[in-house]
């Protein structure tokens, strides 16, 4: 049987090792590459064309959701399983809009990972049992939506990671002026008064994490 190939993308090497161990216990699953951030993942995919990418939602340099969107645009045949520590309706909705094939909450990974991979491999969609409340909220239109646009979320994340306006402009291939304009829009929409407030908001929303 031809192995089902997988690329792992998470900034925590220990978590990648744990996921790899679970996967490699299955004889017909094979990890063919690993990446520590979203930009590294996109470069890796130029060389590797796996069947599935298991992707952390909170990645350095490029949000996991944005990386997922780029994967689906450039490599529509590659399946994407988002791995997250967050149980938030906004992430679920944004992931579905990006076309991902599943969501696995990290605390479910030891018991649900193989089931998630096999479900997606067979053409299905997988959602962690812990996300049942979020799914219900989406079905009935409940819950508060994130007021920021996709680009604003990305910039808020990079600001929270300590990137300067110039570094953000370089990473996103936009001008410093555009970065400043997005930053001003973020603060206006959220009624924030300082960069520290933007960082706090990004952390609270799970765009990034303190230890990532």
From TrEMBL:
Residues 141-206 form the HTH luxR-type domain. Residues 5-121 form the Response regulatory domain. Pfam families: GerE, Response_reg. One of its GO terms (biological process) is regulation of DNA-templated transcription. The modification 4-aspartylphosphate is found at residue 56. Keywords: DNA-binding, Phosphoprotein. Gene3D superfamilies: 3.40.50.2300. SMART domains: HTH_LUXR (SM00421), REC (SM00448). It comes from the Bacteria. InterPro entries: CheY-like_superfamily, NreC/VraR/RcsB-like_REC, Sig_transdc_resp-reg_C-effctor, Sig_transdc_resp-reg_receiver, Tscrpt_reg_LuxR_C, WalR-like. GO terms for molecular function: DNA binding. This is Response regulator transcription factor. It comes from Desulfobacca acetoxidans. The lineage of its organism: Bacteria, Pseudomonadati, Thermodesulfobacteriota, Desulfobaccia, Desulfobaccales.
């Amino acid at each position: 049987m031809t192995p089902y190939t997988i690329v792992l993308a998470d900034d925590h090497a220990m978590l990648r090792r744990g996921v790899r161990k679970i996967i490699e216990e299955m004889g017909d699953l094979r990890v063919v590459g690993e990446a520590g951030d979203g930009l590294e993942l996109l470069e890796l995919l130029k060389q590797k064309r796996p069947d599935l990418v298991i992707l952390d939602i909170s990645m350095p340099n490029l949000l996991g959701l944005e990386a997922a969107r780029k994967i689906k645009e450039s490599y529509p045949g590659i399946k994407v399983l988002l791995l997250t520590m967050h149980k938030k309706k906004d992430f679920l909705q944004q992931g579905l809009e990006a076309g991902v094939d599943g969501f696995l909450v990290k605390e479910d990974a030891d018991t649900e990972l193989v089931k998630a991979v096999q479900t997606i491999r067979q053409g299905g969609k997988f959602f962690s049992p812990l996300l049942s409340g979020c799914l219900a909220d989406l079905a009935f239109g409940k819950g508060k939506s994130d007021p920021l646009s996709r680009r604003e979320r990305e910039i808020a994340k990079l600001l929270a990671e300590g990137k300067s306006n110039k570094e953000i402009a370089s990473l996103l291939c936009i001008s410093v002026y555009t970065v400043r304009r997005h930053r001003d829009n973020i603060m206006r929409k959220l009624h924030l008064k300082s960069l520290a407030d933007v960082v706090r908001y990004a952390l609270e929303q799970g765009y990034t994490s303190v230890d990532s």
